[in-house]
Design goal:
Blueprint (H helix, E strand, L loop, with lengths): L3 E10 L2 E11 L4 E5 L6 H8 L7 E6 L2 E2 L5 H7 L1 E4 L11 H8 L7 H14 L1 H5 L10 H13 L5 E5 L7 H16 L3 E5 L3 H7 L2 E6 L2 E7 H6 L1 H7 L4
Parallel strand pairs: 3-8, 3-9, 6-7, 7-8
Antiparallel strand pairs: 1-2, 1-4, 4-5, 9-10
């Protein structure tokens, strides 16, 4: 049974039909990537799964349970965390305070919060070095680390990442992708939205290609890398 299953999902922004009946599955332990042009529906998919947008039609199942209509914080409780596009760290809060915001569903369980914080600092030693620094004063790469770390504070079973490489220098992009691989190796399933299709398909096990709100291709990541349409449209090959 898939850990995350999306069936016939339709999402609208007002009268704009953003997702047009998409179906996708993410198995436990996988990295699955969504690739497509700007406006294809990738971010909308993540926002719908995380409860920030309500679908008009369709079903979202997590571990066999219907999560449609649950408020966003209840979806986090179930085990789905979302690191949004643009990082969206709290600029006037310290690194520690940002991380604590990610652990709010744990309530006053100080032991669990401290354990999760240790796990985050193990992945991101730079954050521990900067723990008393304001989020808004961090570099772009450090803010991306903080965004991912904050999402991990809830100890998710599935981590949804939206454009983690956006605006980062190539060396930092490589570092972030290695960290995503390590997060997955530690048992966290990953659903990745990434404009850098080449890097995403090297990292992922499987992928889906979205065009104007519809899934037009799905296959193993390697098969998608070899697909002439994908190569021409997203990998810069003729």
């Amino acid at each position: 049974m898939a850990l995350l299953k999306i069936k016939n999902l339709h999402t609208y922004y007002g009268h704009v039909h953003a997702l047009k009946g998409i179906n996708l599955e993410v198995e436990k332990g996988e990295i699955v990537t969504l690739i497509g042009a700007n406006g294809a529906g990738k971010t909308t998919t993540l926002r719908t799964v995380s409860g920030l947008i309500r679908p008009r039609e369709g079903r979202i199942e997590f571990d066999g349970q219907d999560i449609n209509g649950l408020p966003a914080h209840r979806i986090v409780d179930r085990g789905i965390s979302h690191a949004p596009e643009g990082r969206q760290v709290f600029s006037t809060l310290t690194v520690m305070e940002n991380l604590n915001m990610g652990a709010y569903t744990l309530g006053k369980d100080k032991e669990a919060i401290e354990e999760n914080r240790r796990r985050v600092f193990d992945l991101f030693p730079r954050l521990e070095e900067r723990k008393n620094q304001l989020g808004g004063t961090l570099s772009g790469g450090e803010q991306q680390m903080l965004s991912i770390g904050r999402a991990l504070m809830a100890r998710p079973r599935i981590l949804m990442l939206d454009e983690p490489s956006l605006g980062l220098a190539p060396m930092l992009v490589k570092a972030i992708f290695e960290i995503i691989r390590e997060i997955n190796a530690r048992g966290v399933t990953v659903l990745l939205v990434e404009q850098n299709a080449r890097m995403a398909l090297r990292l992922a096990h499987r992928g889906y290609v979205l065009q104007t709100g519809e899934i037009v291709l799905s296959d193993t990541a390697e098969a998608l890398r070899q697909n002439p349409m994908v190569q021409k449209a997203y990998l810069g090959m003729e």
